[in-house]
Amino acid sequence: MISLSMFRGVWRYRGFVLGSVKREFQSKYRNSLFGALWTILNPLAMITVYTVIFSEVMGSRLQGVNSTFAYSIYLCAGALTWGLFAEITTRAQTVFIENANLIKKLQFPRICLPIIVVLNACVNFAIIFGLFTAFLVWSGTFPGAVYLLLFPVLALQILFSIGLGMVLGVLNVFFRDVGQFFGILLQFWFWFTPIVYPVTALPKPIRELLVFNPMAAVIASYQTILVHGRAPDWASMLPILVLTVLCCLMGLLLFRKRSGEMVDEL
């Protein structure tokens, strides 16, 4: 099996992986006066802005939802989870290039590098989303047991993100335009995903095109759980499930086939 031998190597180097995650987290705030407190202050500021500006000042409301905080929850549910997707894919596409010296000097399973990217992103996301969850509890808008349905959606999103990120990461070593193109694509992708606007705001012809946007179903699932307090439409997740499997397989195949050549290109 392709993945079995790779991940056996990862397990043997688990100390290296966890140490790298810890070092990166610490180095981010090493010379900062408030240190790791910034991981709390930044998302807290964003949640406060969304709540005060959109709920209180602009009085924004979601159609069919009476809660004062519904629109700010809708925004946070989309923006925070999109941020996780963007962080994983953006960092994964450059992970081999950024660690060129490490790859050339040390012998270790190269697959560790994308895993470090995922773990770092998940640590950041856990802190941010933990604060958001605390806000839901404080505001009396916590959805209850249906909240647990976030975890399969989150797992699928992470797998899709790293699968796509690995494909981009390998290709970016050989064709540096890939990274530049994806950066532009990501901006259009964000605005083509219903994060800051409801789906109903789109004209019907454009709304029908959302079936070709795999992240639209993922973000909609988060919003359905957190805003409406009900289970998402699992059938709408089938296309991204298939795409996730394809991306992960393609990423692993590309990595295994080209990992030896990457050293020369780097």
UniProtKB/TrEMBL annotation:
InterPro entries reported in the protein's UniProt record: ABC2_TM, ABC2_TM_bact-type, ABC_2_transport
Keyword check for Transmembrane helix: yes
Domain ABC transmembrane type-2: 34-258
Keywords: Capsule biogenesis/degradation, Cell membrane, Membrane, Polysaccharide transport, Sugar transport, Transmembrane, Transmembrane helix, Transport
Organism: Massilia rubra
Name of the protein: Transport permease protein
Source organism superkingdom: Bacteria
Major localization class: membrane
Pfam family, one: ABC2_membrane
Entry's localization field: Cell inner membrane; Cell membrane
Residues that span the membrane, as ranges: 32-54, 69-90, 111-138, 144-174, 181-200, 234-255
Membrane topology category: Multi-pass membrane protein
Protein family per UniProt: Belongs to the ABC-2 integral membrane protein family.
